[in-house]
Amino acid sequence: MSQFVVGVSGGIGSGKTTVTNAFAKLNVDIIDADVISRDVVAPGTKGLRAIVEKFGSGILDQGQCLNRRALREIIFSDEQAKSWLNALLHPLIRQETLRQTMDATSAYCMLSVPLLVENGSYKNVDRVLIVDVPESTQVTRSMARDKAEEALIKSIMASQASRQQRLEVADDVIDNSGNESELSKQVLALHQRYLQFANAVAQS
Question: Name one GO molecular function term (predicted).
């Protein structure tokens, strides 16, 4: 089990996955809440069975997987349905996140959570790393990546913690507005720092 957990977050389009991939190449175990949230509703899971019982088989696509767009449309217009879904999924996600954290074997591990700041998860990790870029860069990158309209990206940004709110809880910040070489230098420097922290915890 890793003795030291670094929570990682950043707004849409900040390049959080690029950063965690860079740490993964240094043999750091990455626990990704986005991946876990998909896994807990995969075919055959308790999560998916409960959703089908609640909303009917029309919530499945042709491959019998969860139709996420259809589910989003339901919960967007129905606050009770959204609350029910959160009550179902959040404990499942927490349980699997804890299991993966316990199973991590690297000196320190990283917990990547999109809403780390918004849901208060930053209080449960040893260190908070925020991936930061200017808001204009968030918009440009997200529009290119998701083939989405500017208005949609800005509405998603408005629903997230602000850039300032993220920076206020950060112990460390990676500026991901530069090139790959600049990012690599920052990742390596933080990797060495986190190894020192993890070693100190292991020896205490």
Answer: dephospho-CoA kinase activity
State yes or no: 82 annotated in a binding site: no
Residue 116: strand, helix, or coil = coil
Flag whether 47 is marked binding. Answer: no
Reported as a single tens digit per residue, the pLDDT across 18-61 is: 999 999 999 999 999 999 999 999 999 999 999 999 999 999 99
Tell whether residue 16 is among the known ligand binding residues.
Answer: yes
Contacts of 107 (CB under 8 A, 6+ apart): 2, 3, 4, 194, 195, 198, 199, 202
> Residue 60 and residue 57: Cα distance in Å, rounded?
6
**17 a known binding residue?**
yes
Under the banding of pLDDT at 50, 70 and 90, the label for residue 1 is confident
Whether residue 156 contacts residue 143, with contact meaning beta carbons closer than 8 Å, is answered with no
Domains, the chain, in order of start with CATH, read 1-28+106-204 (3.40.50.300), 35-105 (no CATH)
Please enumerate in sequence order all residues whose Cβ is within 8 A of that of 12, keeping only pairs 6 or more positions apart, or say none. Answer: 138, 142, 153, 156, 157, 160
Instruction: Quote the mean pLDDT of the chain.
Output: 93
In angstroms, the Cα distances linking 29 to 25, 93, 101, 114 are 9, 17, 9, 17
Determine whether the annotation assigns residue 120 to a binding site: no
**Amino acid at site 167:** L
78 pLDDT band, cuts 50/70/90, is confident
